[in-house]
């Protein structure tokens, strides 16, 4: 299968998407200030910007920029942030056929205040993301079942993620599950439904496998998953760049060894942390060494 998605060359939606994300979109509202405000205090910041975030969309954007035919199944509000988000997805040549808009909640937002030392306070209102439901997934069944790889995270309702993973596995689609943000009482079905369970250090500590007596990790032998440990600097969006890149390799270079896919994905995430912002830092295929493709 040839990867098309060079910037400026959209793929035709009649073709099956190779990478499908069932996940979140969040609008980041970022204020830069000299210090963090105290309770009840109003302070002046020196810069404000709006960014596109949400783990689902981030991972999808990275896969698309590497050339994957990608689609996202997600829900935003019927508001200006939602409209802008859909435009952003289109600009990244991601199919928005199953990007739903609802009147019942606002587009997910992350309000972020960052001081000069880089310390931050963040409030996430998941909003429309939590309304992605079973009916929405059923409408998207054909795009999920024809994919090579489906990615899920935990910024939509766990029930919706579980249903999407079940649908994918039933159709023989590889599932890449990123248990983020970490959840202590993760439903054990997430382990059996994941072809690859991909988490970072803090996420592994929060889930079952980080029990103090375990030396690192030893996945239960009766479960059919692989566990991938990622240790990246916790910089904005690097983990999502890694997961998106891994989905790209799983979909387009299935014959590479997992080790090689991890090396290449790690390289791409390392490139992303050298630029500013989240999605704005994700590299395109044209900016990367040919040896990665
Ligand atoms: C979104 O809002 C517009 C008007 O602002 C309306 O025409 C449209 O039907 C709404 N769509 C949904 C899905 O609610
Ligand atoms: C793991 O990822 C989460 C975001 O999902 C991040 O907040 C956290 O800092 C990361 N932890 C490490 C050790 O990289
Ligand atoms: C992967 O390997 C199989 C058998 O070794 C081969 O039939 C297939 O064409 C290869 N796929 C790709 C994408 O190279």
From TrEMBL:
Q: List the signal peptide residues.
A: none
Q: Which residue numbers delimit the Carbohydrate kinase PfkB domain?
A: 18-205, 237-283
Q: What class of enzyme is it?
A: transferase
Q: Where does substrate bind?
A: 26-28, 54-58, 155, 240
| Stated regulation of activity | Activated by a monovalent cation that binds near, but not in, the active site. The most likely occupant of the site in vivo is potassium. Ion binding induces a conformational change that may alter substrate affinity.
Q: What is its EC number?
A: 2.7.1.15
Active site per database record: 240
Q: Which GO terms describe its cellular component?
A: cytosol; nucleus
Q: Which GO terms describe its biological process?
A: D-ribose catabolic process; pentose-phosphate shunt
Reaction(s) this enzyme catalyzes, per UniProt = D-ribose + ATP = D-ribose 5-phosphate + ADP + H(+)
Question: Gene3D superfamilies under this entry?
Answer: 3.40.1190.20
Give the pathway listed in the UniProt entry for this protein: Carbohydrate metabolism; D-ribose degradation; D-ribose 5-phosphate from beta-D-ribopyranose: step 2/2
Q: Which cofactor does it need?
A: Mg(2+)
The answer to whether keyword NAD applies is no
What is said about its interaction partners and assembly? Answer: Homodimer.
Q: Which family does it belong to?
A: Belongs to the carbohydrate kinase PfkB family. Ribokinase subfamily.
This chain's function reads:
Catalyzes the phosphorylation of ribose at O-5 in a reaction requiring ATP and magnesium. The resulting D-ribose-5-phosphate can then be used either for sythesis of nucleotides, histidine, and tryptophan, or as a component of the pentose phosphate pathway.
Full protein name = Ribokinase
Q: Which organism is it from?
A: Mus spicilegus (Mound-building mouse)
What high-level taxonomic lineage is stated for the organism?
Eukaryota, Metazoa, Chordata, Craniata, Vertebrata
